[in-house]
Design a protein that fits this description.
The chain is α+β, with helices and mostly antiparallel strands. It is built from three helices and eight strands; from the N terminus they run H-H-E-E-E-E-H-E-E-E-E. It has two domains: 46 residues, no CATH class; 84 residues, Jelly Rolls. It is globular.
Length: 130
């Protein structure tokens, strides 16, 4: 009976310990851990496609830098700016392209660039199968 309660106690504490580990990390340390986990997921080929809503994102923060395949939910545009300041001031736009509903588009993002999606898109790292 003691072993049973000990097992239950251990099973309850392990998730709490894992959460505490992340809670104690600084923002930069947490971002580094995210990048490490992301790289491992990509290397194993176990990425699941995801849908991101229309909006403004920063590569390296909102989405890790890399090359992605996007499939838009409707015809709209993608705009890419050199930085957050460039986006705010509508300057130094690197890319302005029309994307078409359900047609794949490949986008390479480097740290710090801002990209503005006009439509929600399915997203996955380029080169992985759906």
């Amino acid at each position: 009976m003691k072993r049973f309660f000990l097992c239950v106690l251990v099973m309850c504490l392990v998730p709490v310990m894992a959460l505490t580990e992340y809670a104690s990390l600084s923002d930069d340390e947490l971002k580094d851990e995210f990048r490490r986990l992301y790289a491992e997921i990509i290397s194993r080929g176990i990425w699941m496609s995801d849908t991101i809503p229309a909006g403004v994102y920063v590569a390296g923060e909102s989405v890790p830098a890399g090359t992605y395949e996007l499939i838009p939910s409707k015809t709209d545009t993608i705009q890419v700016y050199a930085s957050a300041d460039a986006w705010k001031n509508h300057e130094r736009r690197i890319l302005f392209v029309q994307i078409f509903e359900s047609e794949p588009y490949v986008l390479t993002l480097t740290d710090g660039v801002v990209f503005d999606l006009g439509a929600s898109c399915q997203i996955r790292p380029f080169g992985l199968s759906w």
